């Protein structure tokens, strides 16, 4: 009896002391799972959000893969050409604004899209190389040229007229190639004429700009009279040599691309000879296959056309009755002459 009397009052006190421990555990077990980072995956809402993020990342990856496949389309399509130019022009905008006005960039975008559709990445690479070298040559000793009054307008930034005048013949070749004019027998000729047109224009641009900057003695081609730098129809040894090297470099770009493609086809021969011939025929329609004679033809045609352009400039340009014969019109005549000469020389060589 005494034991029970002494122990009973202490029992509630003991339970009261121990209760916080049990209540603490109980409260922890009843808290939401969000308070436990290592158990957050058990939360249905968190799992749903993670699933949505995963689906979004997979969707984004699918869009990127489809875009890459579209760019690599062979033969090129208008969609692949448009997407490729949007990406390239967006990434290359800092360089473009140094050599082109805003309207000139718009004209160059149309040219790039047409070129990619007709000749794929090879044609675009050729035009891009032409633009980079031509812009660099224009910027050489710009302050000196401006002081002498022979520099290009707008700090050398070309407008749409210059872009169209420099690419008119190339655009015609691209349209002829896209529409298959003349059949497969003329496919290589349109390609050769395309390369020759830009070799001609690059040679003309570089020879003119380097001649203005470094030409020691400038001669008029019609009379070999010494004239000031920048005179229409005038040439210099320094400028002529620089223009020749520029055309060789651009022709080499077309030749190099063809050799890379031929090497790839040789390393991976197809089992069927007929299938291999079909593949090569398709690829040669959309990728440059300029060989050494073709590259040489482009260089020679460019030099002859530039000499003709100098004759026109010295005898007709800015003369009475020929005020319409401005630089853009002369550019069209120049590059068209280079393309036509390349085609004629190629036909003569093939026939012989």
TrEMBL record:
Pfam families: DUF92 (PF01940). Keywords: Membrane, Transmembrane, Transmembrane helix. PANTHER family: TRANSMEMBRANE PROTEIN 19 (PTHR13353). This is Protein VTE6, chloroplastic. It comes from the Eukaryota. One of its GO terms (cellular component) is chloroplast inner membrane. It is a multi-pass membrane protein. The keyword Protein biosynthesis does not apply. It is found in: Membrane. InterPro entries: DUF92_TMEM19 (IPR002794). Its main location: membrane. It comes from Solanum lycopersicum.
